[in-house]
């Protein structure tokens, strides 16, 4: 969700790439659903950080504790920030309860990531 949100909110100043240390091979349908609720039609896919091995990023933001811990050493530049969000795909409950967790995480990403991007100086 973070990639889609950043690229739709601040795609002029920043271009986000999302990748995981253990990608599942698809974007969670509920993530796509809650993005669509706010007008973002995301066409992304599940990717591994390994495909970005030779990309010189200006900034890396990890968005969960496991990503911060598992982030490959080559990606750990001096420009790494961590902001931990719960993984909504791991939540259990009714369909609506899980969907609400996805919405909460989406809304927190919308609020927190742009603040990190605005306060980061190089």
Structure commentary:
- The chain is mostly helical and 122 residues long.
- It has one domain: Response regulator (Rossmann fold), CATH 3.40.50.
- The chain contains 4 helices and 2 strands; from the N terminus they run H-H-E-H-E-H.
- It has helices spanning 2-9, 29-37, 65-70, 95-119, and strands spanning 60-62, 80-82.
- Helix 1 crosses helix 4 (95-119) and helix 2 packs across helix 4 (95-119).
- The mean pLDDT is 83.
Short synopsis of the structure:
The chain has helices at 2-9, 29-37, 65-70, 95-119, and strands at 60-62, 80-82.
Strand order of the largest sheet: 1-2
**Rg calc:** 14 Å
Any idea of the CATH class? Alpha Beta
Major β-sheet profile? 2 strands, parallel
Reported by name, the CATH topology is Rossmann fold
Look at the structure and give the mean pLDDT: 83
Give the number of domains. 1
Q: Mind telling me the CATH superfamily name?
A: Response regulator
Topology:
Layout: H1 2-9, H2 29-37, E1 60-62, H3 65-70, E2 80-82, H4 95-119
Parallel strand pairs: 1-2
List keywords for this structure.
single chain, about 120 residues, mainly alpha, Rossmann fold, 4 helices
